[in-house]
Amino acid sequence: MVSIATRLGGFSFDNCLMNAAGVWCMTKEELAAVKDSVAGTFVTKTATLDYRAGNPEPRYQNVPLGSINSMGLPNQGLAYYLDYLLELQETEPNRTFVLSLVGMSPDETHEILRRVEASDFNGLIELNLSCPNVPGKPQIAYDFETTETILHEVFSYFTKPLGIKLPPYFDIVHFDQAAAIFNKFPLKFVNCVNSIGNGLYIEDEQVVIKPKNGFGGIGGEYIKPTALANVHAFYQRLKPEIQIIGTGGVLTGRDAFEHILCGASMVQIGTTLQKEGLAAFERITEELQAIMAEKGYEKIEDFRGKLRYMD
Ligand code: DHB
């Protein structure tokens, strides 16, 4: 029997597929639906300290090869997600879920993380260093100095299992520099990749989303090669204690298989989940299991990271 169970940050999951932050995760109802699907776990919408309405609509659009969005970090605020996660710790004590968060400033990020540290939350935490859509706020992870400073400060007080969500990088030197920084810290995982930031999609001579004159993060089929490159680049460079979550361009079981082949221990589904709904988890689970069965792989460790190069 083929298993797609996995481990991440010391926790076990019976399915290596889950949602990507931003999709099916804004409310408790959506999170509960992902939890009760075949997905291994869920991640919340990235939480800020307080509720945010986000950017004006339309701010998300499906397009033929993927999606474009400039949501602007709409979310219910930290307490909402933390309360729900604490509730689940009582009702589903054998499962582990993921809290995504970031502050609107470094001070707010620390305030949020201190609250999580002080709480009874015992799951995984994903610090989002790659939100591309808040006007006037550059992505943290494209500024290596700021990234290192924040991580240094965080790990002076934060002891719970923490990983980071990264934007795509596009240069080998940047992979080297970023990995050298991440290897200095006791991170449990890096999640590669967030959307390719600030693309532009045009229809009938007009942009398709309202914020930022149409500029937005690109997801879906467009981004798989970039996502796989980032997963594998960090798999090659990071110390083995830092695991990889693969996100980007997962439409089929084959795409999930390729993320795992590049080194991913968990695979997240964003645009495809938005387009297809929760049925995507079942379909991609079955497709991935069929590929593994055909190749004689019984578990994901049989092929994880085993991408072959040419001589
Ligand atoms: C938003 C988009 C992102 O890609 C992200 O990582 C966080 C927030 C947003 O626009 O809401």
What is the overall pLDDT average?
Answer: 98
The beta-strand count equals 15
Measured distance between first and last alpha carbons: 34 Å
Globally, the shape reads: globular
Oligomer: single chain
Major sheet size, sense and barrel closure: 7 strands, parallel
Q: Structural class per helix/strand content?
A: alpha/beta
Question: What share of residues are in beta strands?
Answer: 15-25%
Proportion in helices: 25-40%
Unreliable runs, pLDDT <50, ≥5 residues?
none
Order of strands across the biggest sheet?
3-15-14-9-8-7-6
Bound molecules: 3,4-dihydroxybenzoic acid
Order of helices and strands: EEEHEEHEHEHEHEEEEEHEHEHH
List the total number of helices.
Answer: 9
What is the alpha-carbon Rg in Å? 18 Å
Function: Catalyzes the conversion of dihydroorotate to orotate with fumarate as the electron acceptor.
GO biological process, one term: 'de novo' UMP biosynthetic process
Family: Belongs to the dihydroorotate dehydrogenase family. Type 1 subfamily.
Subcellular location: Cytoplasm
Description:
- The chain is an alpha/beta fold and 311 residues long.
- The protein contains nine helices and 15 strands.
- The chain has helices at 28-35, 78-91, 106-118, 144-154, 172-182, 224-237, 253-261, 271-276, 279-295, and strands spanning 6-8, 11-13, 17-19, 60-63, 66-69, 98-101, 124-128, 162-166, 189-192, 196-200, 202-203, 206-207, 215-219, 243-247, 266-269.
- A seven-stranded parallel sheet has the order 3-15-14-9-8-7-6. The protein has a four-stranded antiparallel sheet with strand order 4-5-13-10. The chain has a two-stranded antiparallel ribbon with strand order 1-2.
- Strand 6 (98-101), helix 3 and strand 7 form a beta-alpha-beta unit.
- The model has no long low-confidence stretch (mean pLDDT 98).
- Bound molecules: 3,4-dihydroxybenzoic acid.
- Residues 22, 46, 54, 70-74, 128, 130-133, 194-195, 217 line the site of 3,4-dihydroxybenzoic acid (DHB).
